[in-house]
């Protein structure tokens, strides 16, 4: 199975490609670069490189794995736009993984042996993108959402939990103040496309993918004209 | 390989993607070796309804909408043209100027399509695409004079050739389409403001309100519409609440002031380019942009063209407003000259066509 994976949701840009049957050996190539801006300039050259290094032709792609959010609005759109256009050109199917789930997958081993694992990443404006998983089954325990630190702390509830991501420290402190047993780990955790390659062989596929923003656009209707009478 | 036997056997076929504002658009255009163009498909999806309640385009809403429909529109454009991606010579996407969120969606998609198909990518200046459209629709070759009037831009350009433009005038504050929109909003008329104001003006008295004619008589070649918009506000406040006739009269007076102001600026621009045109050279004046659809403005421009012996051309409305065909055509023109771009090329929310043009005195960041 030939797979390309990509992520641009947060402060990194990454891509990976692999070919094989049940497994992806021998040809795997990957690239990861931390960056706060510039994903739109780097992503496609990075994809070109990993595809070449993995010895893959675009027309032979079976699956495109991507993080479809949450993340920066622009970053989320870059991965979704690139993936949708690549799929149009290649006929490949999508494996869409939320950025929070991908990070939780990467944090599974460091979070052991605690049963619950939460991801909290800075969503600015005093809020975090937040989701809680069962570390064994990787089922969602608390749905992904954009929440204030105090709201997220309440949602964590009681009992042991390990929180990863750049919002973990703040959230753990707040949760522990309320009597939780939260531990913050991996403050620098970011999604990495490489971590999607192997799971993408086994995960369900879809024919389309839409961004997951978790936050509405900032927009409000303007005030009506002050010069028009009530009947106008 | 697509056969266009009645056109040319070796035409360039370019897919064009446009996402710089609130229209998601894709088109396929052919260009033959003689430089003639043909539109094979041109699909546009307006996001108008998504933005209507906000009284203007909300950039984030626009970017979200582009993301969810661009690939579908590209497929539709290919289907309608009867071509597949592998038939294409290149993919072109508007890369600026415009709203950065939408530009990133269009450029990223265009690069991905080009990369996966193994063909060149072209990052197109949206203003250049407007400027070159006359070559596609009317086979007009440079040099020619160009007035671009839309919701985002108000410029007079001297088009010397592909990639060679002299900006003769720009707005120092609002774009003309923006002035129409703001006037409509002020008077409680629906968006888009241009057609609303034009329609209301039909029943109005253009002489009832003596509104200022911005910039008239000034040697400085630029436009300004912010003051006119404020004058409309003051006039409306004075007689508020407004009757339907008041609104019609304000619209007609506003439109008359706009026409007078634009006419003065265009005359100045024409006088400045006359020395560049040797005797016997065709004199062409091209208008584009959504505001070029305004009938009062159009008749003003036709009048001025006649005055100076210029032929006036305005592409059909669907090619005056934002569309994918103009991006594809600009892409084909650039491709014919070998001007392709890298997959690392940036989008440019600000991207003047004439980087050497002096900053207009008093101009804000949008000019």
Q: What proportion strand of chain B? A: 15-25%
Major sheet size, sense and barrel closure of chain B? 5 strands, mixed
- Which H/E pattern describes the elements of chain A? EEEHEHEHEEEHEHEH
Distance between the termini of chain A: 64 Å
Name the CATH architecture of the largest domain in chain A: 2-Layer Sandwich
Query: Percent of residues of chain A in helical segments?
Result: 25-40%
Secondary structure class of chain B reads: alpha/beta
| Structural classification of chain A | alpha/beta
Query: Which word captures the global form of chain A?
Result: globular
Largest interface: A-B, 41 and 47 residues
Q: How many strand elements of chain A?
A: 10
Summarize the structure.
By secondary structure, chain A is an alpha/beta fold. Chain A has helices at residues 39-53, 73-90, 99-111, 149-156, 168-177, 194-200; strands at 3-7, 12-18, 28-34, 63-67, 93-97, 116-122, 127-134, 140-148, 160-164, 181-185. Chain A folds into 2 domains: 3-100 and 191-201, Nucleotidyltransferase, domain 5 (2-Layer Sandwich); 109-185, ATPase, nucleotide binding domain (Nucleotidyltransferase, domain 5, 2-Layer Sandwich).
How would you describe what is shown here?
The complex is a heterodimer of chains A (232) and B (367). Chain A is 31% helix and 27% strand. Chain A has six helices and ten strands. By secondary structure, chain B is an alpha/beta fold. Chain B contains eleven helices and ten strands. Chain B has helices spanning 48-52, 59-81, 100-117, 126-137, 176-186, 193-201, 226-239, 244-273, 295-308, 317-320, 324-336; strands at 12-18, 23-31, 37-46, 90-96, 121-125, 144-149, 154-161, 164-170, 284-288, 311-313. Chain B starts with 11 loop residues before the first strand and ends in a 31-residue tail after the last helix. Classes of the chains: A alpha/beta (232), B alpha/beta (367). The A-B interface holds A 40-45, 47-48, 58-59, 73-74, 77-78, 80-90, 210-211, 213, 217-222, 224-229, 232 and B 53-56, 58, 60-61, 63-64, 67-68, 70-71, 74-75, 85, 100-101, 104-105, 107-113, 115-118, 185-188, 236-237, 240-242, 244, 342-347.
